[in-house]
Write a structure and sequence with these properties.
Layout (H helix, E strand, L loop, with lengths): L7 H9 L11 H7 L9 H7 L17 E10 L15 E11 L14 E8 L5 E7 L9 H11 L6 H8 L3 H10 L11 E2 L4 E4 L5 E10 L8 H5 L5 H12 L2 E9 L19 E14 L19 E3 L4 H18 L14
Helix pairs in contact: 2-9, 3-9, 4-5
Amino acid sequence: MPQPQRSPGRAVLGSLALIAVIVGTGAAAFAYTAGWLSPQRLTPDRLVAALAPPGGPALGHRRNHAKGICFTGVFESNGAGAALSKARVFAAGEYPALGRFNLGSPNPEAADATVRVRGLGLQISTPDGQEWRTAMIDPPFFPVATPQAFYELLTASGSKDPDAMKRFTAAHPEFAAFAAWAQSAPWAGSYAEDRFNSLNSFVFTDSSGTDHTVRWSLLPAAQPVPVPQGELAKLGPDFLEQDITQRVAAGPQRWTMTVTVADPGDPTADPSKAWPADRRTIEVGTLVVRQIEAERDGPCRDINFDPTILPDGIRTSDDPFPAARSAAYARSYDLRTAEEQDYPRTATGAKP
């Protein structure tokens, strides 16, 4: 059935609504105890269902950030992070890393130049058997302040009511900053040139028992070269995967991990608000990507980058999003694994 035509403004806002950081797994009970989940407000089922495009979800795929490619490498810790956290990952050394570059869209066939938000999921493992999982995106702040507001953004953008987005933006003025970023920020021509940000706040505990509320980012070693969106579209629908595969084949790609420490009074529960640029920032190590593998048979396909899977020395803060993400990721994981026969696999599966 033909869809009603949208004005250019609504089309822009509608496409923005498809971004999310829904790339992980976890326990719905965790989200319930965190206080964000109730039958009258929001459930993982409702949140995951709201991510689906008009034609329905892509079966067998992640319900958002559906298009991605796997990588392996190492995290080279320089030891400076030990001043903030007792987690083994911050002791000087080299630790196995596994991750996934991805696009913020529920469509696994989305053309790369049509998706504004890019993401990076990362798992770092340490010899003591612990893991640190994190899912980051390239905007400097999140579109909205709460999981409930994110659900409302998704439903408003998918509504046939021409005034739905107008009412949403009036009720959530913080969205204006994100919309401005999406329209004006430069586009990078490569995952290797993107900066990825945690956005959510977490608590690091050092060896003396002192807590530090932080956010972190991965800063690319490759020099970002802005490319107009129209020029990116000429590179083809899958240029990001092709580019990062070629770059890593030519040599490892690197990102410096920086941890930013909140000052008293900084908004730790609201990822839509950036912290001031003068906050204390520590370089704690380098992510080195050494190999790229197609997702369909790669090591990241069945991993959810749940932000609540944390080593001793890191814990969640008063930010409600990690708990909400964990519960939604669990539902997404259950759905896509139950639909495995629909996933387009190659030699080891039924579909080309």
